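Note to self: keep these together.
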Amino acid sequence: MSSLFSVVLFAALAVPQAPAPTPSKKTAAVPPASAATAPSDSSQRMSERSGMGPGKAIWATSVEDAIQRAAREDKFAFFEFVKKECGNCQRMDSLLYPALDFEALLVPMVPVKLSLESPEGKEFAGRYGIDAAPAILITTPEGRLVFLMNGFFNQGDFFRHANADVESYRKFARQIESQDIAKLSAKEALDTGNELYRRFDPQAALPRLKRAVTATGAPASQREDALELLAAVQLELGQPATSRETIQRLLATTKDRERRERGELFRAQIPLAENRPAEALSLFRKFQKEHPTSPHISRVNELVHGLEERVKTP
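Structure:
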């Protein structure tokens, strides 16, 4: 769990240029019609309703089109991110498109090709940590992560991992659908809540993490894991006040030094979601004073510098 919390912590600790409550990763995956990613020429050609594209599939014309069709047809959404003059993108297409395995892979999916150089494509890709082409992303219509490949090595590697991850997700989805959350053990609630959050679905993670906190019989370390992750999920869903209550509850009970440091840092960044940089700065300075030898201190120093510039220049 500690590796996940480190990612959560320092992803959230970035000082935003225009502070606002962090949107849900689940709902953010579906852009409004005005923000739909414009397809490349090749994507437009592939998505003509009069004929099939690569993989003998009808390719969508935009992110919104892919998501809406995937929802109607009960399929996954398949996103291919490319750039102009990207030799590896062309190599990937030349190897994947003619393959029968590609045709089989796309049967339960609605594919779309997106330019990573367009503002909309770059923004959508960034929600899943994609910053280079080629990349392949497969999600549910709601935005839950099924498969992600950054870069391309070879045809066999792609199909092996894509098929394995799709099958793994289907198994996980069946587990989620069969759960009675109120009856879950603390461990199963924590494990599935953690997995849902990793798959960019904090909304579904929320009730499971609440159950993990309240279920009887869990060891203290497990309950603290649940509290730590619950606070991150609540902030992700735009609930800073509730997130603050949760992290304060953790700080009031934990005797783990490393967890306390993470909790204090997490608490310090909550005011950023409420557009209160001066309060965040005060809390980060407090951390500097109380934990000068923390392994996080260099990052905190950078954040303090950035906040000082921001506070003095509204």
